[in-house]
Amino acid sequence: MAMLEIRNLHAAVEGEEILKGINLTMNPGEVHAIMGPNGSGKSTLAKVLAGHEGYQVTAGQVIYEGRDLLELAPEERAREGLFLGFQYPVEIPGVANTYFLKAAVNAIRKHRGESEMDAMAFLKLIRERMKLVKMDEALFKRPVNEGFSGGEKKRNEIFQMAVLEPKLAILDETDSGLDIDALRTVSEGVNALRSPARSFLLITHYQRLLNYIQPDFVHVLVKGQIVKSGGKELAQELEQSGYALFEENAA
Amino acid sequence: MSAVAEATSVYLQEFRELGRDEPAWLSQRREAGIQAFEAVGFPHRRMEAWRNLKPGALTQQHFRAADAVGAVPMALAPTAALVPDAWRLVFVDGHLSAGHAVLDDLPEGLTVRPLRDAVVQDGAMPEAHLGRHAVLDNHPFAGLNSAFWADGALIDVAPGTVVDRPVVLVFLSSESAAHRASYPRVLVRAGEHAEIRIIQMHAGPDALPYLVCPVTEIIAEANSSVRLNHIQEEGAAAFHLGLVHAELARDARLHVHGLSDGGKLARTDIFVNLAGEGADARLDGLYLVGDGQYADYHTWVRHQAGHCSSQQLFKGVLSGKAESVFDGLIHVHKGAQKTDSRQQNRNLLLSPRALAHSNPRLEIYADDVKCAHGSTVGELDREALFYLRSRGIGENDARGLLTFAFANEMLQLIGVEALRDHVGQRLAAFMPGDATVKELL
User: Fold this and answer.
1) pLDDT score recorded for residue B45
2) Nearest alpha-carbon partner for B264 in B176, B316, B205, B216
3) Kind and range of the H or E element at B243?
4) pLDDT (tens digit per residue) in A7-41
5) Is residue B33 part of a domain?
6) Which range has the worst mean pLDDT, A205-219, B237-251, B290-304?
7) Paired residues of B51 in beta bridges
8) pLDDT score recorded for residue B263
9) Closest Cβ–Cβ partner in A78, A92, A143 for B392
10) pLDDT value at position B431?
11) Residue B22 belongs to some domain of the structure
12) pLDDT value of residue B323
């Protein structure tokens, strides 16, 4: 069974149609990259999949592990194993990272019928996963993303992903705005989490990310439609030709 | 129907019937109080400072002063014992509950006494200060307090005395106070270099209407420090209308931290006169206003001397059909150069039916000053809500967490751990969802 099947997905924001018929199938263990120019609908796709209420699905279907994904509230999607790494992680002053993540872990465990994690086990998990993304432990005690640098915020996203252990991770421009060291760390984090049961959808503006994370498939998104799909060599092709060629074809 | 309390009032009649046997100076001040009330009566729309308050049921009946000490309601026993490591006076229905007092081993230089005893035993101090500072003209309920107060506290800190434990004043209403009024009165003087923290708590049972009009006067002498935690968590049908008035001499520091989380109709006015150079006042407040409640903070910060600073931060959380007012005055006198004054008011509406009035008022008559103010009224941030939900946290819990995050800044300014935990529990009860605040703090 496919992990995710997107069929003819149309979505609008404030009445303006952004996604105009997306088709995409992802199997367990696969890494797909979606590339595209500004305004092509990359982030819209990520947010629609995660359940953001600001976007209206006007047509199409999304089947996740055999279920209708679009019927689920954002928190239900997360509890079913979907994770969105935000392009712009939100700052939440007044709520410590510790509390936030513990609430998330326990909400997911409760959904699975598991008991709450005790403090010691939680701390052990946190420390272990923090090492994976080389995150400073001090950051963990601070309010969620407050005063974090751009790189720290993205690292925090990958760290959260490592703790929550999703089945399907959608990373929305996690590589944007990162210097090379941070990009390496983030990529290493993703690579360490790759497994036959876990799929990744990498949304990126830059081919550079794909030097560090090898995708199985690359899709080019232009004006709300996937105009070309291929293997990782498509990314290199794009790097040379740019999006202009595809934009003309789409128009 | 004519309101019983509006015409020449049943309160004046009640006052005349009391016939107290007291020192002449006190009788005169009580008389001034009832006259001040008679002059204006209960507030009405045409009184600018009271235009949002709808006194309604308050004027439809006569809340006669409770004339005896009631029993501490069982549910409020923990409130009476709040902040364990402290000196304490507990009043029920405006009268001293002698059995609850904790005044053992008061340090030298600290006087804490029921006010009724103090006007006899420490005659000179109350005579010099009681009712000499709080302005009655614009606050009918302060007038009523001056006329009717039965008891309260006198706290006098001798020069140079640093008090290392808070003094807790608990004013409770009991079931026998239904349809009755109480008028708690507090007088505080901090001598030169003295330091003191006072916790003033008001609470009462739900479901029965009663009226509480407290007045607290604070005299902070040169270079002294006074901290006041002022907590209003009256019962759901109660009327609570009172004021705090502080006079700050040269280099004196005042920190008032208010919580308003009860009552059907609640208003506290905080008057601060920065009368000596270098004085500093910090006023913080958090109001949690539920369906059908009205909460109101009015601040009156007057910079009367140069080089003084003041900071105000008030936050409100409103749910259901709640209504709140923050009205904050910064008045800078002509000679008060180098004033540094800030005021912020932020309101979070959890419901589309909630209404928050925010009214900053700046009156500046000096030219070399810094004055900043800001006010916001908004809902929970949609992106933050989505962020939390996208991690598996349910919508109600996410709303609760963000509400907590909004209010948490005020909790961190409380300064007494036991009190912060208490307010945290109150906040948790108010928040949507069932996040465990104990872990959040």
Assistant:
1) 81
2) B205
3) strand B239-248
4) 999 999 999 999 999 999 999 999 999 999 888 99
5) yes
6) A205-219
7) none
8) 96
9) A78
10) 87
11) yes
12) 97
- B264 and B408: one domain? no
Residue B38 within any structural domain of the chain? yes
Q: Determine phi and psi for A107, rounding to 5 degrees.
A: -65, -40
Structural domains counted in chain B: 2
> Does B436 score more than 70 pLDDT?
no
Encode pLDDT of B30-86 as tens digits: 999 999 999 988 888 888 889 888 888 888 889 999 999 999 999 999 999 999 999
The domain boundary residue, chosen from B259, B275, B291: B275
Summarize the confidence of residues A159-182 as an average pLDDT. Answer: 93
Q: Chain B closest CA to A142's CA: distance in Å?
A: 12
Examine residue B311 and state whether it is found in any structural domain, yes or no. no
Write phi, then psi, for B67 (nearest 5 degrees): -110, 5
Determine the Cα angle at B349 with ends B344 and B351, to 5°. Answer: 170
For residues B257 and B413, is the Cβ–Cβ distance under 8 A?
yes
Grouping H, G, I as helix, E, B as strand and the rest as coil, residue B262 is coil
* Residue A4 pLDDT class (50, 70, 90 cuts): very high
Instruction: List C-alpha distances in Å: B46 to B1, B50, B51, B144.
Output: 20, 8, 6, 20
Alpha helices in B96-231 (DSSP H): 115-121, 124-129, 140-148
> Within 10 Å of residue A193's Cβ, how many Cβ atoms?
17
Tokens of A154: 């993205």
Residues B33 and B171 in one domain: yes
State whether B81 and B196 are in the same domain. Answer: yes
For A26, the token pair is 């992802």
State mean pLDDT over B118-128.
89
Instruction: Tell which of B218, B252, B275 closes a domain.
Output: B275
> For residues A80 and A93, what is the distance between their CA atoms, to the nearest angstrom?
28
Q: Using the beta-carbon criterion (under 8 Å), do A160 and B384 form an inter-chain contact?
A: no
Q: Give chain B's radius of gyration (CA, Å).
A: 21
Q: Percent of chain B, pLDDT > 70?
A: 97
Q: What is the pTM of this model?
A: 0.91
Distance CA B87, CA B166 (A): 7
C-alpha to C-alpha distances, A77 to A32, A39, B107, B213, B432, nearest whole angstrom: 19, 25, 61, 53, 22
For residue B162, give the DSSP letter: B
Residue B440 confidence class, pLDDT cut points 50, 70, 90: low
Q: Quickly count: other Cβ atoms within 10 Å of residue A251's Cβ.
A: 7
Cα–Cα distance measured from residue B387 to residue B389, given in angstroms and rounded to the nearest whole number: 6
Closest by CA to B304, choosing from B346, B333, B328, is B333
**Cβ atoms of A59 and B368 closer than 8 Å:** no
Chain A residues inside the 8 Å CB shell of B381: 90
Which amino acid makes up residue A231? G
SS3 B427: helix
Give the chain B residue nearest A84 (alpha carbons).
B390
Hey, of A75, A108, A167, which one would you mutate to test binding to chain B, going by the most B CBs within 10 A of its CB? A75
Question: What percent of chain A has a predicted confidence (pLDDT) above 70?
Answer: 98
ipTM of the modeled complex: 0.95
- Taking contacts as CB-CB distances below 8 angstroms, the residues of chain A near B440 are 95-96, 99
Q: Torsions phi, psi of B254, nearest 5?
A: -130, 135
Rounded alpha-carbon distances, angstroms, from residue B99 to B80, B89, B95, B150, B302? 11, 9, 12, 18, 40
Distance of alpha carbon B23 from the chain centroid: 29
Q: Domain containing B424: what range?
A: 382-441
Q: How confident is the model at residue B2 (pLDDT cuts 50, 70, 90)?
A: very low
In this predicted model, what pLDDT tens digit does every residue of B288-333 receive, in sequence order?
A: 999 999 999 999 999 999 999 999 999 999 999 999 999 999 999 9
- Using the Cβ of A78 and the Cβ atoms of chain B, whether some distance falls under 8 Å is answered with yes
